[in-house]
Amino acid sequence: MAIMTRDFSRNDLVDDPGKAATIVKKQALAFGADVVGIGSIDRWADAPIQMDPRQIMPECRSVIAMAFRVNRGSMRGIEEGTYFSNYSAMGYGGITYLYMPMTVINLSKFIEDQGYEAVPMGHQSDWRGIDNEGYLKKNYSRPVAPGRAAPDVMINLRIAAFLCGLGEIGFSKMLLTPQFGPRNRIGIIMTDVELEADPIYDGPQLCNRCMACVKACPGGCFDTDRRVKVNLGGREVEWIDLDMKSCGTAFTGTKVSDEPVPPEKQYNRDQTVPGEWSPFYKKPRNLYNTGQAVCGARGCTRACMISLEKRGVLQNRFHDRFRRRPTWSVDWNTPPEYPEGAVFRPQVTEAD
Prior knowledge:
The protein is an alpha+beta fold. It contains eight helices and ten strands. It has one domain.
């Protein structure tokens, strides 16, 4: 018996960039991506150095972006107020740390089987040199040579998806695809093979600035008077300048208290208490590494999705509407009402 291994150089990806792009995209879908598009590296000509793919791969010629849907059902438990961990685990951490890496790694292996280099990048960015607002962290890392970025470079994945034609960036700063609206997580591959680029999205308008995201955000993180305007691949794109600190607080179910909070009652950090959008007395532990979305993306994803579905502009359609009951909230100033039949562990007293 002889050992078995993968077949190498079965497809010539260099003679016909259009044919090569079709081969690669079909493989991406076969490996598990829901949507895939390709952007030529020239679209990153004006990218900040800390977000430039060429800082990772100087010979990069093509960027492949893949969208992975967040199951609508992963948000059902939060919508009902009864099952929060599924969105963080399956809709957030599971895609980010398990499913998406497998797909981008397998597609990168396929490209490298043909003799071209491929850099797989999922959503993981825990070593990145910039913070959530794009500023370089002081005393964190330093360039290894003149003209090089400080490690680690982190490509803006939403912008990459836009430049690869997957959809548009909404006023909320979320990537919206015509298939799933905001229900996406993005993985990319940088490669030195030339693949025919897809046009930047110019389909039916997705974001109509209905402000559903703004109205529903529990942290009030959207300041509509503060805008960010950038030129992406020759297109002017504008979004709200999101308050990332407030987002990080609301994300975990937390709000800052106006009154002093004793340490034993603090929800997450100093002077924080649970918000009306959280039923937990304390912030639940992290799932995977960063999955702790107690807010359940109430504004930026759920409210946006509901608006897009109501307008009938998404391709992934459902038989029933998502919101079927009134929006819930928790009144933390009143005692809890547990369901009949709830069983608690008996308290042990000294007499026992």
